[in-house]
Amino acid sequence: MWKLAIAKSITQQIGAIRCRTQHYKCLSKLQGFHTTHFRPAVVPYLLADIGEGITECQIMSWAVKPGDHVNQFDAICEVQSDKASVEITSRYEGIIKQLHYNVDDLAAVGSPLVDIEIEDEISPLRADEEALGTLQGTENVSIDGAVEKLVDTIKVSAPTTANTHFATPAVRRLLKESNIEISQVQGTGKDGRVLKEDVHRHIMQLSNQPEQQSDPKLGDETVALSPVQTKMFQSMTGSLSIPHFLYTHRVNFSPLTLLRKRAVDQKMLGSLETTHPEKLTALPIILKAVSEALKRYPIMNSNLAIENISSRPSLVLKSAHNIGVGMDTPSGLLVPVVRNVQNHSVLSLSKELARLSTLAKEGKLSPKDLSGATIVVSNIGSIGGEVVAPVILPPAVAILGIGRSRQVPVFQTNKDGTETITKQEEAILSWSADHRVLDGATVARCAQMVGSLLENPELMSLICH
After folding, report:
1. Cα→Cα distances 169→112, 226, 369, Å
2. Residue 325: partners with Cβ closer than 8 Å, 6 or more residues away
3. Could you tell me the maximum CA-CA distance found in the chain, to the nearest angstrom?
4. How far apart are CA 29 and CA 15, in angstroms?
5. Mind telling me the catalytic residues?
6. What residues does the Peripheral subunit-binding (PSBD) domain cover (predicted)?
């Protein structure tokens, strides 16, 4: 029923616009002058295509409400796709008449976000043709086609209310599952944004309070996937067709840790960089070691191109080492890309990782930041776990998982031939490879080269170019 009602409304609107448009054209031809429009005109402002094949976005927050005056390029709302957050700005100056979505609603590309009453003097022919073009899309389609397209994508929502609390879709989902109002949680993120840690802290505080009478209506609940979860679902579903094989090896991290401790010494870095990192983690050194190994084994840095199951597959050997790095964020797992690692130093990699990590936590990564990875590195050891079986992110053919390092006892042979037990920091590197194009020997050799560089980090200064 609601589809029929929307279709009828859109048809009437388009019909009225067409009648006025033809009327203005006739007047222009008969009178020989351009007519202007001095009365306000309400124009629907539609969610434009933001690229990357995105078909819908989640409304994160509104910067306006009905009755507000907006200028051109003023912020209207913030939306989040399955890849990044985007701020939507106004193309018109006028008065906001209606908001079509609530916060957390999913808005389809091509559907109206707001209705704006245009105040400036504007040609009625141009305004109506622009609205009609927006309703019908950029393609040359019929009115009926435009109506059908909009009816299939428009989502009916309740009247919008003001919301000044900011949180990612994953956090809002957690709040909903925990039956907690966002206004009850004190946000510690940027501009008061509520983080996942804030929700967990609030839940712990509630658990320490005296027990309340339980709700007899508690039961299972079906919830929709967030945009980030939806993207992960699609990517991992595509990975099901890849025959993975796993290769793991232990690496002595003691020399690497010693180098890191020396690198954060201001006296050592003062002559190298005007600014130095306060903390140098193992990750940028690992990325550099992986990049050096990829020069020797370029097939590990390739994309598998398969147009269809019957066509002959091909490998695209990538010249740039664009390494995706898995990051745990309030929105969930994101994989921003460090581009051209082969041209970076360890210190510049550390700065780039810090920049991407900040953007990821704030939900500010762009679609470009999240696309184009030729190989992926996942540092799951920063959370916990020693051995991991990472899943390949197509069209890449390999992924590296880094386990948590730990101190272990090892036998050491002295110069006189005697053996002693000593303490050594050790981590396990886990490689998953696409067995359709990579054999075990190639992966093992590449992995051993990475291990040798990490156990002898001074060698990288000799072979890097």
Report:
1. 21, 6, 20
2. 283, 287, 335, 336, 337, 338, 353, 356, 376, 377, 378, 379
3. 109
4. 21
5. 435, 439
6. 166-203
Beta bridge partners of 248: 430
What is d(CA 115, CA 95) in angstroms, rounded to the nearest whole number? 8
SS3 125: helix
Give Cα 459 distance to the centre of its chain: 35
Q: What is the pLDDT of residues 121-151, one digit of tens each?
A: 444 445 444 444 444 443 444 444 544 544 4
Question: Which amino acid makes up residue 404?
Answer: R
Instruction: Read off the DSSP letter of residue 308.
Output: S
Give the model confidence (pLDDT) of 254-268 as tens digits: 999 888 888 776 555
pLDDT digits (tens, 9 = 90+) for 209-254: 655 555 555 677 888 888 878 888 888 887 888 999 999 999 999 9
What is the Cα–Cα distance from 151 to 143, expressed in whole angstroms? Answer: 12
* Residues across the chain: 465
Whether residue 433 contacts residue 343, with contact meaning beta carbons closer than 8 Å, is answered with no
What is the rounded CA–CA span in Å between residue 197 and residue 175?
Answer: 12
The single-letter code of the amino acid at 69 is: H
Domains and CATH numbers, the chain: 2-153 (2.40.50.100), 242-463 (3.30.559.10)
Distance in angstroms (rounded) separating the CA atoms of residues 119 and 137: 24
Q: How many helices (H) and strands (E) does the chain have?
A: 12, 18
Model confidence pLDDT, tens digit, residues 28-49: 454 444 445 446 788 888 887 6
Which structure tokens are listed for 149? 């397209």
The secondary structure of residue 194, as a DSSP letter, is B
Q: Distance between CA 42 and CA 433 in Å, rounded? A: 56
Are 196 and 171 contacting, i.e. CB atoms less than 8 angstroms apart?
Answer: yes
Closest of 131, 128, 125, 129 to residue 35, by C-alpha: 125
Residue 57 structure tokens: 């976005």
